[in-house]
Amino acid sequence: xxxxxxxxxxxxxxxxxxxxxxxxxxxxxxxxxxxxxxxxxxxxxxxxxxxxxxxxxxxxxxxxxxxxxxxxxxxxxxxxxxxxxxxxxxxxxxxxxxxxxxxxxxxxxxxxxxxxxxxxxxxxxxxxxxxxxxxxxxxxxxxxxxxxxxxxxxxxxxxxxxxxxxxxxxxxxxxxxxxxxxxxxxxxxxxxxxxxxxxxxxxx
Length: 204
Hints:
The chain is of the alpha+beta class. It has helices spanning 3-11, 19-29, 38-41, 59-77, 90-98, 148-162, 178-184, and strands spanning 47-49, 52-57, 102-109, 112-123, 130-139, 165-169. It has two domains: 1-31, no CATH class; 38-192, Gcn5-related N-acetyltransferase (GNAT) (Aminopeptidase, 3-Layer(aba) Sandwich), CATH 3.40.630.30. It contains seven helices and six strands; from the N terminus they run αααββααβββαβα. The protein is globular and about 60 Å long.
């Protein structure tokens, strides 16, 4: 049982359970243990890059705004999974975010969301150091000009260093030239991944 839940229960001993208290208990009971505290993540400052602005935002705050961006990403790069439903679990993203295990970087122009990079944070069981694993990295075509993507990745890297990450793992799809882009930025190809969508007949 986590410390926040224990504190809440102790503070409300003998208090009649109402819907608000019940909701608080349910949230804390389902809470993932915190890895990187919010105050550490909140130290990451926004940065301007020409006409674009980079920042850390909470997916909890921009859930509706980011959904079309996620859909564009799915349509452009996830063709191998188009036989499966597109159904992101935003509540899970939020739970991880609240636990300091998910960080969302955004790219905007004139306040309009044009790109994002989401990183899962965890402590490696092999090295016990903080590792950042990319979940999403996508810019709309209008944001892919000049060195914008390169500068955005540099912003992400510097922010992850700031919160103590020692390693970044990024996956790229075969449908674009992202692999060459990341090699140019100093990333090394250390493995080759394979995906198989299981058909119903294969699962019987």
